Amino acid sequence: xxxxxxxxxxxxxxxxxxxxxxxxxxxxxxxxxxxxxxxxxxxxxxxxxxxxxxxxxxxxxxxxxxxxxxxxxxxxxxxxxxxxxxxxxxxxxxxxxxxxxxxxxxxxxxxxxxxxxxxxxxxx
Length: 124
Description:
Elements: E1 27-32, E2 38-43, E3 48-52, E4 66-68, E5 75-80, E6 84-89, E7 92-97, E8 103-108
Antiparallel strand pairs: 1-2, 2-3, 3-4, 5-6, 6-7, 7-8
C-alpha cells in the first residue's frame, strides 16, 4: 500500500471570476515551464496568467507577470516553449510572447474549413 501525506504551505488565488458563486471560479490548467521558473494558470475567468516563481515560491498576494485576455471561453489547456506560450479554449488557440505578452499568432475554430463543428481540446 502506498501512503501519502500533504501539508499546505501557502495558498494563493489564480482565478478571479467575478461571480456570486465562489464554486464557479476554478483552475482548469496549471503548468510549469521546463526549468520550473514560470507557472501558467488558466481557468473559468478566461484569462491566461504567467507567474514568476521566486526562491520562496508563490505567496498570497502575488501578482501575475503576464495576464493574457485573448479568450472568450474558459481556458482548457496551455503549454510553454522557451519564449512562447500556447493557450487553448474551445474556440481558439492563441500564441503569446513570454517576453512582452503580445499575441504572436491565433487560430480560431471557425477558420478551419470543414463541414463539421470544430472545437479545440488539447495542445502540446
